[in-house]
Amino acid sequence: MNIFSSITSFLKNHVWCLVVYLSTVTLVVWGADGDLANRAGFAASIVSIVLAIVVIVFTMQESNRVQRLLEQFGQTSEKNQEVILGILNSGSGATSQQPAEKSPERQNQGKILKYYLAKGLRFSDTTDKTNAMIYSLGAPLSFDLFNGPSSFKFHGYFSAQEQNEILFNVKQLMKTIGDAYNRADALKDNSEAFQKAIEILNAISIDVLVADNLPKEIMDQKVAEFQPAHRNITVNFISLDSIETYLEKEYASLDVS
Question: Are the C-beta atoms of residues 228 and 246 closer than 8 Å to each other?
């Protein structure tokens, strides 16, 4: 469902509430003291407030997109659930993630977990079948999976790796996601399973932790060459410095002095 159809659906479901509210406000304003200009200005303010409320509520609905997808998945027929899981399954056999033991690459894992928590993302629970299948797309390449209300995020701990090895891992993950799109395309006749699988795949993005001194602009250019035909997958190369800066701002916002 695109943004315009979502707005249309929302307004259809709430139009009578808006009409009653606006009518009541208009009658009150029209009967109040004051000249026509004041009335018109007050009425315009009320309309702006109502529209702002509509936008806020709509944004809240959209922010829970992944949560709704997972709930809808549970309501899908058992047969179609298996179809969707088959689309997402990379065949790697790795479907269960646990916080890894700290290695040189993962020595800052605590900061990474806090960073994603501050962004509304959590370390994915792979006892959930959908999370497990999505995790399997990146597991062979040592990507962890995080998810929140509106997204699935692969994170690669590659700060100790060379540029070419990092690009190889990213390229292979993007190819694996592209293969999942291809499996979905082969099942277009099953519109329910196809649509839900595509919505899940569209919610995936990638973060890669790299050394501060790597040429991120050049790496971005290479990633553009790896993009699958179905869509451009967001890939962010992030450094430990940027993560620490973000967390420092979060700590400072508490203002406990």
Answer: no
Distances (CA, A) of 10 to 6, 13, 14, 44, 58: 6, 5, 6, 22, 7
Would you say the pTM of this structure is higher than 0.70?
no
Q: How far is CA 60 from the centre of its chain?
A: 13
User: Both 244 and 145 in a single domain?
Assistant: yes
Statement to judge: residues 7 and 97 lie in one domain: no
Backbone angles phi, psi at 19, to 5 degrees: -60, -50
Domain count, the chain: 2
Query: CA-to-CA distance for 246 and 249, rounded, in angstroms?
Result: 5
Same domain for 56 and 78, yes or no, is no
Q: In what order do the strands lie in the sheet with 143-147?
A: 122-123, 143-147, 152-157, 204-209, 235-238
Q: What is the mean pLDDT of each run of 10 residues along the chain (257 residues)?
A: 45 50 55 57 63 51 51 56 64 56 68 92 89 90 90 93 95 93 82 83 95 93 92 93 94 81
